[in-house]
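Support case: user asked for a sample of complex input and structure output to validate their parser. Sending the pair below.
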Amino acid sequence: MKTNSSICHGCSIGCGLYLVESEEGEKRKVLHRTTSPMNEGKLCRFGTDLHTYYERETMINSVDGKEVKQDEAIKAAKESLKGMKPEELAFIALPGTITNEEIVSFLSLAAEFGCENVSFGFERFFGVVPEEAAYIIEKGLPFSEVDGASKIILFFLDPFVHYPLLARRILKAKKNGAKVIEVSFAKNERGIADETVLVVPTEVERIKEKKELFEDSLIIGELTPYTNPQLLSFMLWLNASTASRLFLLKPFLNSTGAFLLGKDSGRKDLFEILEGVEKGEIKALYLLETDLAGAMLGGEGVAETTSKLDLLIEQNAFRTHFDTAGITICSEPFFMKKGTVVNVEGRVLEIGGESEKGLQIMESIGKGRKYEEVHEEAKKRLGLGDSEINEFEIAVKREERKFEVAEPKIEKEEGGGAGEEYFLWYKTNPFFWNGIRAKNFVEISPVAMKELGLFRGDEVEIAQGEQKERIGFKISDLPQNLVLSEAKLAIKPLQGLLTRVETRRAE
Amino acid sequence: MEEVKAKMSRYYLAWAKDDAIRKKGANGGFVTATLVSALEADFIDVALVVKKKSVYEGIPVLTNDPEEIKESSGSLHCVPLNLTKYVVEYAAKKRIGLPTKPCDARGIIEQAKRRQASLENVYMIGLNCGATLHPLRMREIAAYYGLDPDSVVREEIKEGKIFLVSDEEGKEKEKWMKIDELEEKGYGRRDACKSCVTKIPTMADLACGNWGSNDEKKTFVDVLTDKGETLFKNAVDSGYVAIEEAPGKGIETRQRIDAGMQKRAASWKEKMDALKALSRSERFEFYVDALKNCIHCGACKEVCPVCACEEDAKCTGLYDERDSYAISMYNLVRIFHLMDSCIHCGQCEDVCPVDIPLTLIQRRFSERMQRHLGYTPGMDVTKKPPLYETELRWSAEAE
């Protein structure tokens, strides 16, 4: 029996836990780590089941579909990358299971080949956020700020679904006397809010009329690659024009690390890169620990797009949803890694493992540095100085600054064709808890159930153009025309927030 | 050289003969020495111990290395871990010796009744237990004492006080405060421990502690079972442990401390029962309000030491996320299922991500039922759970 101290990579909170391995070193289970200051030993559903995440099929080392030794796969990757023009290359790493050290190595690898098309998933927001407000998307806040807040605004965020370990902080704040207001398309079913500002899907802009509600508050929202940039502008405007603070949670554990370490590098939006691949402008892609087809909405389309590449290199611990990668290189599972991450509170956390495999794969292709050298560079770039890493300290702090943002406009959702009377709202983002306990239903209102002629046991069909999805349903206290989904459907939101869909009883 | 008499007395003062074990272990290192001697004499294949990582942190270790057992000695009040599930996992394959708090031992006994572990393979060296503390609360206590929490190198609970020793730049500093005073200020023990009335593990093979000992380097040992006697004799005969008969005064002191602790626990239980002054409808509202926050992560079931169900359990099987009951089937079934078996250890509340007061809720339901049935779970392996659901199997196999 071996007990490894580790970090959950389910979201940007980075809950501490132990993974207990059986004597044979195979069977693992999660043990709650009560000493962890992020979560005090508590875990959400993903964390409790984390051991099952590590039970997936491991990646193999391969070149052109043929299993090879790792050295050969690395050599082939190096040679193939050398043969590409810099503008034809792209590097993508959604920072869920990558360390700060791997990010440093990944960026220098991209730079080695002159590539400026590097994405960590959030680049689409760079143009939206003024320089002086960049700290808001880069850094979060310690949870003690939530505990001590006097007014909390939940901005289109259900903490029980999105970030349960944040929910307990909000409940704690309530016990301490905080008022909680939710701004949402639907009332939180657990009634966490003292007040609800119900937003009509076609009238999001009218939140501006309630601006005074945001005074002296802590606004808590979420930033994911699918967040509507207009909604981010809206949150920033509310923050800038009131005496409030804005705290954005993210779905990837090391989002803060990726933001801060990748600051001075050539970056390109994830969706633009995929568009470049589609157009044939980008011909080679290096994916680090990122199962794009598995994680994104419309994964089949993503897989089809990447099949147009001349070269797809995947470095991952586990098999992904792609079967077209020319080169696959097997790295180690996250819990085995030696390295650090920065959580959304600004704590620098050690993963707890001993392996440098993932880092050394990239260093073998690139500069050939040792772990210590890369680690020191990461520490320097994060501004950590010589201090020892201590999970009890908020090492990456943020300073609130004044900034100005033009009053934003939220464009109305496109669509509105015949029969599109319903709005689909993803209650969570598709990067969450990928592949674990997938939901098999959407939520609809009792009125919708009646209108659609549904009975218990029926299924609904949700359609957006050619895309159709058949799924079970649950009756919830919702506005009549809203369909809420925690399930990842084939339907893509048109502007990140919600989308018009046709909804009917599935025959 | 002491020799255990042919007909054993029940109470002893005992200590490790090895200087290093005696120094490092709590109360003279009897427990560590007994485990090491049991391993060497082949009574057990492995010891299940909690290895100290710091004053605040310990991890379970299954080991057949005497040195690792020795490393794990010493008090560790900040690790509110229940070892039952590890016993369930390994006792089918190995003979295990382990130190048990009363709640560990009670969990193991309930699992044995449900045929998840064979007690023949388990040697329980019980530890008297005043309480465990959440490690982060202990850090807060250190800060309250004016100590840097990271500099605390030792902790001890004795004479109703929490002692912390810090080491700052080579200078040791000891601070203490009465537990009652700390708890009045909102610091202190886990709620489940505050209200726990089972302080001496009389259901284990041996019950050990400092209550009744006249020397802080001697353990008061209560020999409770034949297996306990075997372990004890072996530890003495193999030269690991020195003993003397416990003085009558010590026995009385131990009983007095236990009675006092039980009285205080009963008083805490009253004090913490937020529901007692509520009307029936208000109580229902309380339950609905508390349980509505449940995210159905399953952690409470996973850590529950008396739950013998696997993945296909009634609580998870009957729960459908699409239902909109005021209290979900998961929670309802768990409440009913645990009514005759909950040992009020608080493990469920420790891991609940939304801080549902599960110890209080489970206690409200189970205590009344257990009183009604005249049954206290986890105290005696020969007592069948009154609501045992596989009556026929029990009858056929056990009787």
